[in-house]
Design brief:
Elements lengths: L20 E3 L5 E8 L4 H12 L4 E7 L4 E6 L4 H11 L2 E4 L2 H37 L6 H22 L1 H12 L6 H20 L7 H33 L5 E5 L5 E5 L8 E4 L9 E3 L4 E4 L1 H4 L5 E3 L4 E2 L4 E2 L4 E5 L7 H17 L4 H26 L4 H14 L3 H20 L2 E3 L4 H5 L4 E5 H5 E7 L9 H9 L5 H10 L9 E3 L3 E4 L6 E4 L13 E5 L5 E3 L1 E5 L3 H10 L3 E5 L4 H11 L3 E3 L4 H13 L4 E4 L6 H6 L2 E4 L5 H6 L2 E3 L6 H35 L5 H19 L9
Parallel strand pairs: 16-24, 16-26, 24-25, 26-27, 27-28
Antiparallel strand pairs: 1-2, 2-4, 2-5, 3-4, 6-7, 6-8, 8-14, 9-12, 9-14, 10-11, 10-13, 15-28, 17-23, 18-19, 19-20, 20-21, 21-22
Helix pairs in contact: 1-2, 3-4, 3-7, 4-6, 4-7, 5-6, 6-7, 6-11, 7-9, 7-12, 10-11, 10-12, 10-22, 11-22, 12-22, 12-23, 15-16, 22-23
Length: 725
C-alpha cells in the first residue's frame, strides 16, 4: 500500500521507549505498535506468530482495522518487538493516536492520487491501443507513433500508481515471504517490459493497456478496503470521545481545580455537574441523584442512585450535581473497556476471508504454473528464447483478472444500490457476503424492536382536563417522561415559573394552588403502579402509565426471519419482567435480561465459539461492542452515532422490515458472485490455451477480456429487478 515517510516521527531503536509501556496489576507490560502493510488474515497470522515467538511474550493481538498490534509480555524490550515486526516485512512504530490518524490521512490521499493517475492513463492508453487493434490497415509508422504515445503515458503512470503494490512486494521479498502484491507487481512490470521491447523492435502489438488497466482495477479495491478500515477505526475513536476532556477535582487543601481526565487517579474526589458525563468509574459520596444509564443498559428511563452506589464512566448526571470518589483511571473505565471490546470485535471480523480472496489464493499459483509450463514447453519444442518468453508472458498477461476483479464488485454495486432504494445503507464491502451466511439473529430491545421513547398508554382513562394541565408543566422540561406527556397532549401553552427539583419532578404555583408533576413521593401518591404522577393542591394524585412501544413491523419481522430458518434471540439491559413480556409479544423464545455491554459481548463470543454466525441488530452505545463481534451487524436509523459507525449496514427511517430484504438480497448476491467466478474461470480456460499456443493477438485478447467483463456485469444486473429474490 502507499506508505508514509516515517523518518520524522518514528523513534530510533536506541530511544527510550519505556513511556509507551503500560504496566498491569499482575506485573505484565503492554506495548501497542502501529503496523503498516498488513491487509489480510495471512498477514495477521504471520505477524502474531512471529512476535509470539519472542521469549517472554505472553499474548499478541493485531487489529487489522486499526493497524494496532497489542503485545503483552514479561520484561520484553519494546525495541525488540519493533525489530521483530520489521524483520517480518512490515513497518512498525509505537502506537500514538494522533500520529496514526495523520499517517492514515496521508495514506488515503496517496491511494486516491494513484487511483486518479491510473484511471486517466487507462482511458488514454485504451483509446490509443484500441485504435490500433481496429485499424489493421494502419501504416507501420503511425502504429509505432501510437505505441510510443501509449508507452509514454502507461510506463510512468503504472510505475507511479503501482507504488502501493511495489513497496509491499519489496518488503515481502526482503523478509523472504510471499504476499499477493508480488505476483501483481511482477505482472505489471513484465507487461511494461514486454511492451517496451515490442515497441522498440517494431512488434505488431504491445500490452501497455493491460498493465495500466490492471493497476487501475486493483487500486479500486485497495482504496475501498482502506475506506472500510478507516470507518472501522472511527467507531472506537468516537467512543473514546465520550470521556470528558476536563473534570473538576478537589485538592488536598479543599479547593476545586480543573484538570484533564487522564490525570485523574483512583481516590480523587470529583464534582460532576448536572448534564455532564461522569469521566471515570467511581462511587457516589454526598447524596443521591438520577443518572442516564443508556450507555450501560440501553434503557431510556433515568435511574436513581444513592450514596455509596458505584457509577461508571460515560453515564450522564441528569439529577442534581454530585461528588464522587474515583475508583479507576480513564484507561480502566467502562468507556475504555467498550472501546477495547469494539477493537477486539473488529479484529476478529477482519480475519474473515472474502470470496474474492479465496478465489485469488487458488488463481495465482495456477496461473504462474501455467506460465512456467508454457515457457518450458516452447523451449522443448525448439522455439527461440524470445518467442518462448513472449508466449509465457502472454499467458500471464492474458489472464489479467479483469473478470475476476469485477465478479464481486459488480454484484455488490448492484445489490447495494437496490438496498439503498429500499432503505438500507451498506457500509462495508464484504457485509453482504457475511449476511448471506448467518444462521442466528440477535435483537436489542429498547430502541430496536421498540421505538425507544415512552408513550402515554392511559390517556383515554384520565379525568377531563388532567392531561392538558400536566402538559403545561411538562413542556418546560426535557426529561423523557415529561416529553412523552407533552407529545401526548400536542402543542399548547407552557406554565409560568416552573421549578424543577432534580430527582423528584416539576412544580408551579404556590400554596393551595401548587401543581406538581413527578415521582410518586413528590406527588404524595401511596401507590407505585405508575411511572409519573400529577397533583394539584390537595386533590388526589393522578397516575400516568408510560411505556416504550413496539415498532409496528417488529412482530412481522421476527416471523419472517424464523420462516427462513433463522434462530432469533433478544438481549436487553431492562428488567426480566419487561423483557419477558416483550419477548412473548413479538414471538422470541430465547431472551436475556439485565445484562451489561460486556455480557452482551460475551454472549456473542459464546455463539461464535459454538459455530453460529450471528446478525446483531442494535441501536445503543451499549450494543456497539457486541455488534463488532457479530458476523454482521445492522443499526436502525435512530441508533446512536457510535452504533452506526460500528455496524455494517444502517437502516433509513423507522421500519425494521428492510432487514429481511437485506438478507434475501445478500443470499442472491452470493449466488450471482459464484456464477461470476464460473464465468471468469470459463474465460481463463479459453484464453490460457490460446495464449500458451501463441495464437493470441491483441484483437482476440481485447475481445475476450471485454466479453468476459460484460458477461459478469450483465449477470450482476439480474439483481437489480424490483421483485424480492
Amino acid at each position: 500500500m502507499g506508505t508514509v515517510n516515517l523518518s520524522l516521527s518514528q523513534p530510533s531503536m536506541r530511544d527510550d521507549l519505556s513511556r509507551y509501556m503500560r504496566r498491569a496489576e499482575n506485573g505484565s507490560d503492554s506495548f501497542e505498535v502501529s503496523v503498516k502493510g498488513a491487509r489480510c488474515a495471512n498477514c495477521i497470522a504471520k505477524i502474531e506468530k512471529g512476535v509470539a515467538a519472542i521469549p517472554g511474550v505472553e499474548n499478541v493481538r493485531l487489529n487489522l482495522s486499526t493497524g494496532k498490534l497489542l503485545v503483552v509480555s514479561q520484561g520484553v524490550a519494546p525495541q525488540k518487538i519493533l525489530q521483530r515486526v520489521q524483520d517480518i516485512g512490515y513497518e512498525a512504530q509505537p502506537f500514538e493516536a494522533a500520529d496514526t490518524l495523520n499517517a492514515d490521512e496521508v495514506e488515503g490521499q496517496f491511494l486516491l492520487r494513484c487511483l486518479a493517475v491510473s484511471g486517466f492513463a487507462t482511458v488514454f492508453v485504451m483509446g490509443l491501443v484500441e485504435g490500433i487493434w481496429y485499424g489493421p490497415d494502419m501504416a507501420d509508422s503511425t502504429r509505432q507513433l501510437f505505441f510510443g504515445l501509449a508507452g509514454a503515458v502507461a510506463v510512468p503512470a503504472s510505475l507511479y500508481a503501482g507504488q502501493p503494490f511495489f513497496r509491499s512486494a519489496w518488503r515481502g521479498l526482503v523478509a523472504r515471504s510471499v504476499n499477493m502484491d508480488i505476483p501483481i507487481s511482477l505482472a505489471v512490470l513484465l507487461a511494461l517490459g514486454l511492451s517496451i521491447y515490442q515497441a522498440g523492435s517494431h512488434g505488431a502489438h504491445t500490452y501497455f493497456d493491460a498493465a495500466v488497466m490492471l493497476v487501475f482495477l486493483l487500486l479500486i479495491g485497495r482504496y475501498l478496503d482502506f475506506r472500510l478500515r478507516d470507518r472501522a477505526r472511527g467507531a472506537a475513536r468516537h467512543l473514546l470521545t465520550l470521556q470528558s476532556l476536563l473534570v473538576r477535582r478537589r485538592t488536598a487543601a479543599g479547593d476545586m481545580e480543573t484538570v484533564a481526565a487522564k490525570e485523574v487517579a483512583p481516590g480523587d474526589q470529583l464534582l460532576v455537574a448536572t448534564g455532564d458525563r461522569i469521566p471515570v468509574n467511581g462511587v457516589i459520596e454526598d447524596h443521591g441523584t438520577e443518572l442516564d444509564l443508556s450507555l450501560v443498559t440501553g434503557e431510556i428511563l433515568p435511574q436513581r442512585v444513592d450514596v455509596g452506589s458505584p457509577v461508571q464512566a460515560g453515564t450522564i448526571v441528569i439529577g442534581q450535581a454530585v461528588a464522587l470518589r474515583a475508583t479507576a483511571a480513564v484507561e480502566n473505565s467502562l468507556v475504555a473497556d467498550l472501546a477495547r471490546l469494539l477493537e477486539a470485535g473488529q479484529q476478529s471480523r477482519s480475519t474473515y476471508v472474502r470470496l474474492a480472496d479465496r478465489a485469488a489464493a487458488l488463481y495465482v499459483p495456477v496461473v504462474f504454473s501455467l506460465s512456467f509450463f508454457a515457457l518450458i514447453g516452447w523451449l522443448v519444442a525448439g522455439a527461440p528464447l524470445s518467442q518462448a518468453v513472449t508466449n509465457a508472458i502472454a499467458v500471464l498477461i492474458i489472464t489479467c483478472p479483469c473478470a475476476l476483479g469485477l465478479a464481486v464488485p459488480a454484484v455488490q454495486i448492484v445489490a447495494t444500490e437496490r438496498l439503498f432504494k429500499r432503505g438500507v445503507f451498506v457500509k462495508s464491502g464484504d457485509a453482504l457476503e457475511r449476511l448471506a451466511e448467518i444462521d442466528t439473529v440477535i435483537f436489542d430491545k429498547t430502541g430496536t424492536l421498540t421505538e425507544g421513547m415512552p408513550v402515554l398508554l392511559n390517556a383515554q382513562s384520565l379525568p377531563p382536563g388532567i392531561l392538558e394541565r400536566a402538559a403545561r408543566i411538562a413542556r418546560a422540561s426535557r426529561h423523557p417522561l415529561a416529553r412523552a406527556i407533552a407529545a401526548a397532549a400536542g402543542d399548547g401553552p407552557v406554565a409560568a415559573d416552573v421549578r424543577e427539583t432534580a430527582g423528584a419532578g416539576l412544580e408551579t404555583g404556590t400554596g393551595h394552588d401548587v401543581e406538581r408533576l413527578g415521582s410518586a413521593s413528590w406527588c404524595d401518591a401511596l401507590e407505585r403502579d405508575y411511572q409519573l404522577w400529577y397533583r394539584r393542591g390537595m386533590e388526589p394524585p393522578i397516575g400516568f402509565h408510560l411505556q416504550d412501544r413496539l415498532r409496528p413491523d417488529s412482530v412481522a419481522l421476527v416471523r419472517s426471519l424464523a420462516s427462513r430458518g433463522l434462530k432469533v434471540e433478544m438481549l436487553s439491559g431492562d428488567n426480566a419482567d419487561n423483557v419477558r413480556a416483550m419477548a412473548q409479544e413479538v414471538g422470541i423464545a430465547s431472551w436475556f435480561a439485565g445484562i451489561t455491554p460486556q455480557q452482551k459481548a460475551v454472549r456473542l463470543q459464546v455463539l461464535r465459539e459454538q459455530g453460529s454466525r450471528v446478525l446483531m441488530v442494535g441501536d445503543g452505545i451499549n450494543d456497539a461492542a457486541a455488534m463488532a463481534l457479530a458476523h454482521v451487524s445492522i443499526a436502525p436509523g435512530t441508533a446512536t452515532d457510535i452504533s452506526q459507525r460500528a455496524s455494517d449496514m444502517v437502516l433509513r427511517g423507522n421500519a425494521l422490515s428492510p432487514v429481511v430484504e437485506a438478507f434475501d438480497v445478500a443470499r442472491k448476491a452470493r449466488r450471482l458472485v459464484l456464477v461470476n467466478f464460473a464465468l471468469a474461470a470459463a474465460y481463463n480456460l479459453t484464453a490460457i490455451p490460446l495464449a500458451a499456443m501463441g495464437y493470441v493477438t491483441p484483437l482476440i485478447a481485447a475481445a475476450t477480456m471485454a466479453g468476459s467483463s460484460l458477461l459478469v456485469v450483465l449477470n450482476a444486473l439480474r439483481l437489480a429487478g424490483g421483485r424480492s429474490p
